[in-house]
Design goal:
The chain is mainly alpha-helical and 350 residues long. It has one domain (45-295): MetI-like fold (Orthogonal Bundle), CATH 1.10.3720. It is 70% helix and 1% strand. It is built from 15 helices and two strands. The protein has helices at 26-55, 60-68, 70-103, 109-116, 118-121, 124-135, 142-147, 156-167, 169-182, 185-192, 197-226, 229-235, 245-254, 258-296, 308-328, and strands at 335-336, 348-349. α2 packs across α14 (258-296) and α3 (70-103) runs antiparallel to α11 (197-226). The protein is globular. Keywords: Membrane, Sulfate transport, Transmembrane, Transmembrane helix, Transport. Its main location: membrane. Pfam families: BPD_transp_1.
Length: 350
């Protein structure tokens, strides 16, 4: 029959347009963007604008007078001092904990990993009460501290301890997944090349984690400056002595001194915005270096860009290993095969 297909021939199906299964309708995209923008406007931008409006409502002179008032200056100094002490302590702990968890296997590893997350799940007020139980007048170590005239509570040491407790997960939690993803090959290669433990850390490990480390320090510093609950329990609210900036804002607000309260709050907000800007800069720098490394075809770590010196270590170690193997193997003596012409090199055997 004319026009009929041969037996066994497949009939061509009409082409159908292919749509991206993940593509959303335009109205869905606009709705999601509008909801996100509305949420940020109502719960972030409007409150921030209100803080600065109330702080400047009576003019710059009143604003500046509230910031240079002795109690305010004392609160600012104490906040910066506590952050300057707590952040380095958490830096040391975070690097040590991340290195131990990512590089070694030991009994209690899972318990240590769980305990690092404890401040995230415990109320800051409860963490402050823990120190009251330990170092208070009726606490476990209270009588001994009183006997030796050592003050922990209602003094700077108690504020530092409470701040360290609520902020110590930040550095460790940034570094643990990063170091686990990078593995131990580069450190092992450096050791094979003769590097000591400190040389391996400073020249291989630290360059690999530098951006994650800086990111964790930024988050830790932001939380340390803004901590309220735990510090409120252990500080005693002594004006000019143990009041940090958040506590000073609370006292001023309770005294109906709204201009001064919002002035100090605006300064705390500016510090937070500065921290956010630094964090954004770190993220931008990391993405740019990762992009440059990808364009050059360099191997990169899953989350951060390793230093060039660290990237060169495995290749150097491979070359070193090849040289060692060649040196360890005895030289092979070639001799002519039975019945072969001594002048014919193709008839020689090893």
């Amino acid at each position: 029959m004319a026009g009929s297909l041969p037996v066994g021939a497949a009939r061509a199906l009409p082409a159908t347009p292919v749509h991206d299964a993940t593509a959303e309708a335009p109205w869905v995209r606009r709705t999601l963007i509008a909801v996100a923008a509305l949420f940020l406007t109502l719960f972030l931008f409007v409150p921030l604008a209100a803080v600065f409006y109330e702080a400047l409502r009576q003019g710059l002179n009143a604003y500046w007078s509230a910031l240079v008032e002795p109690d305010a200056l004392s609160a600012i100094r104490l906040t910066l001092t506590v952050a300057a002490i707590a952040v380095p302590l958490n830096l040391v702990f975070g690097v040590a904990a991340a290195w131990a968890i990512a590089k070694f296997e030991f009994p209690g590893k899972s318990l240590l990993t769980t305990l690092i997350d404890l401040p995230f799940s415990v109320s800051p007020v409860i963490s402050g009460l823990i120190y009251v139980l330990l170092f208070g007048a009726q606490g476990w170590f209270g009588p001994w501290l009183a006997e030796h005239d050592i003050r922990i509570l209602f003094a700077v040491p108690g504020i530092v301890l409470a701040t360290v407790f609520v902020t110590f997960p930040f550095v460790a939690r940034e570094l643990i997944p990063l170091m686990q993803a990078q593995g131990t090959e580069e450190e092992e290669a450096a050791i094979v090349l003769g590097a000591s433990g400190w040389q391996t850390f400073w020249r291989v490990t630290l360059p690999n984690i530098r951006w994650g480390l800086l990111y964790g320090v930024i988050l830790c510093n932001a939380r340390a400056m803004g901590e309220f609950g735990a510090v409120s329990v252990v500080s005693g609210h002594i004006r000019g002595l143990t009041n940090t900036m958040p506590l000073h804002v609370e006292i001023l607000y309770n005294e109906y001194n709204f201009v001064a309260a919002f002035a100090v709050a605006s300064l705390l907000t500016l510090l937070a915005l500065l921290t956010l800007a630094i964090k954004t800069l770190v993220e931008f720098r990391t993405r740019r270096e990762l992009g440059e490394a990808n364009e050059e075809g360099m191997p990169v770590a899953p989350a951060m860009l390793p230093a060039a010196s660290a990237l060169a270590v495995p290749a150097q170690a491979a070359a070193f290993a090849n040289e060692s193997v060649c040196a360890a193997q005895p030289a092979k003596v070639r001799r002519p095969a039975a019945g072969a012409d001594p002048q014919d090199s193709l008839g020689w055997t090893s």
